[in-house]
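Entry for the shared binder. Reason: the reviewer on the internal report wants the predicted structure included alongside the sequence.
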Amino acid sequence: MKLLVTSDLHLVRVWRPIVLAKLAQWVREVEPDALLVAGDIAVAAEAETALRELRRTFPHGPIIISLGNHDFWGGALGGCRTLPATIERFWQAPAQRYDVALLDQENFSLGGVLFVGGYGHYDLGFAVPGLRYEGKVVTQDHYLHGRPPIETTLRWRDFDWIPGAADVLAIARDQVKAVQSRILASDSSRIFLTVHTPPFEELLGIPDVSMIDPENPPIRAFFRAYLGNRAMGEMLQLYSTRIAALVCGHTHRPVAPADLGGFVGVNVGSDYGAPRGLVLDTEGPTTRIRPITELVV
């Protein structure tokens, strides 16, 4: 089975035509058996349009998605207080209407492979230890509000747009439990994991934390805390013998296939208006992954 894999399409109005044109080109040239998207498809209010356009671009064959943080943006405006409520209010009906498998709600089986996944969120586990700005220590309270302890226009905007975003750690724990429950719901020995936020440091696609001087860090070092869910990775290691491969996105930094201790993982690395794609071949005992190098923007 040949999978076309991508992530972070951000199919909102400004980028939608560019991204869909590139996706259509990939579909023509790769002729995949299925399309897999690892989160950040659009925003909540544009779920209907985004999934309709995905199905129009890939009319025949399974479309499999997990959601990303941007896919929950605006959920509160629709009266949602939680991430599950946002899925039910905005994503569930169009997913059914356009025959899209939504991994945040259930597993999907295809060609002898079980697709398991979900959003993932972030548990602050990748934060830089002892970070300071102008002598001011960054505390967990700063992370729980998305702002460093100095004046800056930069902030983590999920806190403005995601329902219940203040419960960062609770959301992260719930995501780990949800993915684990879906793994345990099947006895499959060949699981393909799809999560939006990286569960392993090797998949962040940014310099190692040892390269950062915590006493004189760049402002973006603060936002490292929101790049992934370390506890998710710790949980997944418990099932490493059952996992064939893992794909993620979120950081907009590509990471080539990496050995995660029993299975391979990759970060697609799409950026706003500049999607990237991968081809995964699941035939044989191992999963082969190659970039669509000639098609990458």
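Summary line for the report: Residues 293-297 have pLDDT under 50 and may be disordered.
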